[in-house]
Amino acid sequence: MMRLNLRLAAMMILLMSGAAGPASAFCGYFVAKGDSSMFNEVSKVVFARNLDRTVITMANDYRGDPSEFALVIPTPTVLGRDQIHVTEPVIVDHIDAFTAPRLVEYFDEDPCMQRRFKALAMQSSRMEDAGAAPDRDKALGVTVEAEYTVGEYDIQVLSAEQSGGLATWLRENGYSVPQSSDKVLGSYIDMGMKFFVAKVNMGEKARSGRTYLRPLQIAFESPHFMLPIRMGMLNADGEQELFVFAITQGGRVESANYRTVKMPSGDELPVHVRDRFADVYRALFAEQVKREPGVAFLEYAWNMSWCDPCAADPLTRAELRTLGAWWVAPDTSARPLPGTVPQPRPGTRIMPRPGQGPVDAFVTRLHMRYDATTHPDDLMFRLTDNAENFQTRYVIRHPWTGEATCPAADLYRQTLPHRMEQEAQRLASLTGWPIAEIRGEMSIPEKPDTKWWNDIWKQAE
After folding, report:
1. What's the burial of 162, exposed, middle or buried (CB within 10 Å: 0-12/13-18/19+)?
2. Which side of the chain, N or C, has fewer Cβ within a 10 Å radius?
3. What gap in Å lies between CA 65 and CA 165, rounded to an integer?
């Protein structure tokens, strides 16, 4: 029996161009990132939109038997063969890495050099019996509008007259569709939507020699701006993790029917989180979801031309066009090798695109954890004219450990315990971790037993 991989969904988007705003720079050196690989049950959807043209790339994390993979997506129109494509997963991994939350580090300078650190604020086999029983399809009110084989996928595009017939058709064709699906399917039928159905063609997969399933891409024109996540909750077992990457000519993309909330950013954290940032960010995100259920979290919004600091190289023009940004002019730059994601050079802070000039592409990263209770409705999106740069970014500051001997060094050492305690308090507040455990992992120096009035008259003595 086929299992329906319902975590994947497609979206129908209306995006309008907006003006680009001024860039804001952040200092610091990239040391770690929090990409989607640190979460479970992940769906990643990339969309590019300009005018009424939409290209959607759906990366699945299906890890079972490929013969059991199945996908059902509502679409606004019947898709032609040339509107369906497959691409390599590395390109989705690249945009994930480029937009990922990041950790940057600074090193305090010698306090006797009269310089004070200032942290800049964050301004399968083919469908069995498909078409073999047209009378049965007609009786159920289901029409197979088109059939294609694209790469390793067998695809059918369906239309339906009523949800009960469509649900029955899906079950009879090997899809495990729960009884509760009728209402959800009916709502999409009432909207005039078609249904994009995909399974793995095992013969084509074997001939390709690949051990993974490639992301599916679809291109269409539509005024709709939505992501039908209710389809992804029909067979869902618990909360789902969704990352939406939007490439536009204008500003950032936000949810129109759920609040869009920026992730906390710019906080200074204890130095010891450097080597465990994945654990920290998982706990941090879970705590924010606990405090703000039913929202879409903004993790990144930036022009693709550059980054500061960089969690990965910006995407090339060729990669952007592959993801559907048709308005971006082609280039001849080298693309990444298959299976690799470009990484920033050690110590890199700002990385403009060498020799290519500005790129008219703005990328937004939204992160959601949802279920039927927190997000009962499909996601509606809107494009804003807000082109202000934003990134989810955290800072660690390494204390000065030299043998500085001057009044400024004495003052620095006196304030260091207070600073480190503040870092511990911030980490506890962001993650919900016990403050005592955090303090136990830190080496907070004891505050010198010197009263503030002891040094007032030293100069006069």
Report:
1. middle
2. C
3. 28
